[in-house]
Amino acid sequence: MKLFAISDLHLAQSVDKPMDIFGSRWANHIERIVEHWRRDVSDGDAVLIGGDISWAKSLEEAELDFGLLNVLPGEKILLRGNHDYWWTTKRKMEQFCFEKGFHTLRFLRNDAITVAGFHVCGARGWLLPQDKDFSKDDEKILNRERIRLDLSLEDLGRLRKSEGRERSSIALMHYPPISEEGDPSILSVRLEEEGVDVCVFGHIHHAVPFYLEGPKINDVKYLISSCDQLDFRPLYIGEDGVFDHTESKN
């Protein structure tokens, strides 16, 4: 079973949110995602989707976008991004998907799961203090995200204990937990403390050479998954709990 990752799909089949207003590289981006996805991903695989999934403002409005994801190959693990205004309680989202027959969609929220032989945890994250626009309000949100990450990491510990083994571990996040220069944050420190191997993040749409290099800092490998940074192609992470050597190397 192969594992892939992609984020910032910005689907908008029920709302007027054309992404090509952000540049020609976004032209026909949904069609390009679908083409690459169908070419690379098989039904027995899984894809981590790291936030900013749909511009919809409610689950009902997100139905068409969920339906598109559901028919694409593989199991999908969804994490909240800052533009996922439809996001609600996990119970409501799971009930909605059950009623609509969206059986390939799962949600990661304050917990950890085993998928494709990997342990996966994570949280949305937030702006970091190094950001020029960081405010007192942002500090409060960042601290709440640390609590959410702690809950997910605690569940990761329980998962490791219940399985009696430590699988290769991945933290799925929307915001990068390290700065564009590689400075740490209260989130990246927690990943290091809990022995997370790889952090996959999105949100970033401008060129940041440091992120694109896939840096390894204090034994945590950081991989960017914003779809426009990947030419709208899911990023191959590994298979059956073994990282792809081209992604996991230092």
Structure description:
The radius of gyration is 17 Å and the shape is globular. The chain has one domain (2-248): Purple Acid Phosphatase, chain A, domain 2. By secondary structure, the protein is α/β, with parallel strands linked by helices. The strands form 2 sheets. The chain has a 6-stranded mixed sheet. A 6-stranded mixed sheet has the order 5-6-7-8-10-9. Helix content is 30%, strand content 19%. Helix 4 (136-163) runs parallel beside helix 5 (186-193).
Set out the fold topology.
Blueprint: E1 2-6, H1 29-40, E2 46-49, H2 63-71, E3 75-78, H3 90-100, E4 105-107, E5 113-115, E6 118-123, H4 136-163, E7 169-173, H5 186-193, E8 198-201, H6 209-212, E9 216-217, E10 220-224, E11 235-239, E12 242-243, H7 245-248
Parallel strand pairs: 1-2, 2-3, 3-4, 6-7, 7-8, 8-10
Antiparallel strand pairs: 1-11, 5-6, 9-10, 11-12
Helix pairs in contact: 4-5
Features:
250 residues, Purple Acid Phosphatase, chain A, domain 2, six-stranded mixed sheet, alpha/beta, 19% strand
CATH architecture tag: 4-Layer Sandwich
By CATH reckoning, the class would read Alpha Beta
Biggest sheet strand line-up = 4-3-2-1-11-12
CATH topology: Purple Acid Phosphatase, chain A, domain 2
- How many domain units? 1
Ends distance: 24 Å
**Secondary-structure element series:** EHEHEHEEEHEHEHEEEEH
**CA-based gyration radius:** 17 Å
CATH homologous superfamily descriptor: Metallo-dependent phosphatases
